[in-house]
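F.,

This is the one I mentioned.
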């Protein structure tokens, strides 16, 4: 076998990239309030903002769009999706929604009450926000190894079982359900082992709590288990995924990730009474239960994507792409979360720019510099996204301050990946010249999306009156 693993597809349709100069990008980013979410996408050369909804669909998915049945009720496309989703997620009821967070809203607004505590291995921003929106308190129970970016552990996404048990022993009545996110997006795209899934399920059973799996990247997680967990190398990725879901009471899923689709989501469950409640609510918020806010053609594309995503040639290439980039960054001394995640790699901001304090928003500085210098769009997932100002006026910082580079599925080639790595290495060599930022406008929730920033003036102290606005 060759050492060279090539992309397991040929390119039939191309989308040109509009080139831009550094000088142009300096203007674009200033006009965007130094928040890359405010840029026009066409002004980005390589867009690694997210892997969500950005996949290239296959010829079979494009063909499936033509077969989409747009009937309001009982669409043929729904039944095709229901059939493959039941097979993978191992649940009797499949409810389509327009994207993952719509499913979270549906479930959480039904099950979470004021004062509840919802534990997770690591909530992503939307699940945390949906818990909080219903008066609950989202808490993250990572394993200790996950909080050290440079510590190598094969399943850094695992839930901290001790902490979960302790919470349930003391405050069980406040916990409506337990969330397990596979893979763990907020903490490095890290997988959860099957052993950990079973342990969490055991604890849930002991305390009579439903286990909800946030399954956005279930196929990547399954392939990590195949490669890293003893006893599963002979299982197919599909068999592993099915085994994982047997332990879940509820599944929420964003089809924008591991269904290789551009929109959509699912809620999957067995509890018939709860399914009734959710379907009734769904009609108010999303639509009739056989379309859930989606067009028939979207249902058809998701069904086809679910058939493709567990292909192991695809999964091998997918995980190797990120691993290849991380290997090159590590070889060049760049501080990056190890081991490589499934959908993204993450720079360890505090070690990348040690001369800037958290208040000087070093994650934003990295994101802005890489856009200006290389036209690359990444996202801050650290102090800005997950930190907050407490009522006392003090800042609460997350333990990990990261910048994420998420690879859209089947979109970029090895040369694009090589270019990104080269730009990051160059920036790292010039890191001492990178200046900090401050909030100009601070959005009240999920601050990374809508806040704007201002560069700190070089050579001044940190007093507010010295800042540019
Ligand atoms: N859960 C996880 C783990 C996610 O990563 C996301 C979305 C969601 C839920 C919500 O799904 O976007 O379909 O509503 N993550 C995207 C990202 C936005 O960039 O990581 P959605």
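My design for it:
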């Amino acid at each position: 076998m060759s050492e060279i693993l090539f992309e397991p597809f040929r390119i039939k349709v191309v989308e040109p990239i509009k080139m831009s100069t550094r000088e142009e990008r300096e203007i674009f980013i200033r006009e965007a309030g130094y928040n890359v979410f405010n840029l026009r996408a066409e002004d980005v050369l390589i867009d690694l903002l997210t892997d969500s909804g950005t996949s290239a669909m296959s010829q079979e998915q494009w063909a499936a769009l033509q077969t989409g049945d747009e009937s309001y009720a009982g669409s043929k496309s729904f039944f095709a999706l229901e059939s493959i989703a039941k097979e993978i997620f191992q649940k009797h009821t499949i409810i389509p929604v327009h994207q993952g967070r719509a499913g979270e809203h549906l479930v959480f607004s039904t099950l979470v009450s004021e004062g509840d505590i919802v534990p997770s291995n690591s909530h992503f921003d939307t699940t945390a926000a949906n818990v909080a929106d219903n008066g609950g308190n989202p808490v993250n129970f990572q394993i200790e190894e996950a909080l050290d970016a440079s510590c190598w552990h094969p399943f850094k996404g695992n839930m901290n079982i001790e902490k979960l048990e302790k919470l349930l022993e003391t405050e069980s009545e406040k916990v409506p359900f337990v969330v397990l996110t596979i893979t763990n997006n907020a903490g490095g795209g890290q997988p959860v082992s099957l052993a950990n899934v079973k342990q969490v399920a055991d604890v849930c059973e002991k305390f009579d709590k439903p286990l909800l799996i946030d399954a956005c990247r279930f196929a990547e997680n399954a392939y990590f288990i195949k490669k890293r967990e003893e006893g599963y190398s002979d299982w197919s990725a599909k068999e592993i995924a099915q085994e994982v879901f047997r332990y879940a009471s509820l599944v929420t899923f964003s089809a924008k990730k591991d269904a290789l689709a551009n929109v959509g989501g699912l809620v999957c469950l067995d509890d018939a009474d709860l399914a009734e409640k959710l379907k009734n609510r769904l009609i108010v918020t999303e639509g009739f239960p056989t379309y859930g806010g989606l067009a028939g053609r979207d249902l058809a594309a998701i069904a086809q994507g679910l058939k493709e995503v567990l292909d192991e040639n695809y999964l091998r290439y997918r995980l190797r792409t990120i691993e290849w980039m991380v290997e090159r960054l590590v070889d060049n001394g760049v501080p990056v979360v190890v081991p490589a995640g499934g959908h993204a790699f993450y720079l360890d901001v505090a070690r990348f720019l040690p001369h800037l304090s958290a208040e000087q928003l070093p994650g934003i500085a990295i994101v802005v510099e890489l856009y200006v210098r290389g036209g690359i769009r990444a996202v801050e997932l650290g102090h800005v996204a997950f930190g907050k100002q407490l009522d006392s006026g003090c800042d609460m910082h997350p333990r990990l301050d990261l910048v994420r580079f998420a690879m859209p599925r089947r979109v970029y080639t090895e040369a694009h990946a090589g270019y990104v790595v080269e730009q990051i290495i160059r920036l790292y060599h010039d890191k001492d010249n990178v200046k900090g930022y401050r909030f100009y406008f601070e959005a009240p929730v999920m601050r990374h999306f809508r806040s704007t920033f201002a560069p700190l003036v070089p050579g001044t102290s940190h007093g507010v009156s010295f800042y540019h606005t």
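The CA atoms of residues 18 and 42 lie 6 Å apart.

Talk soon.
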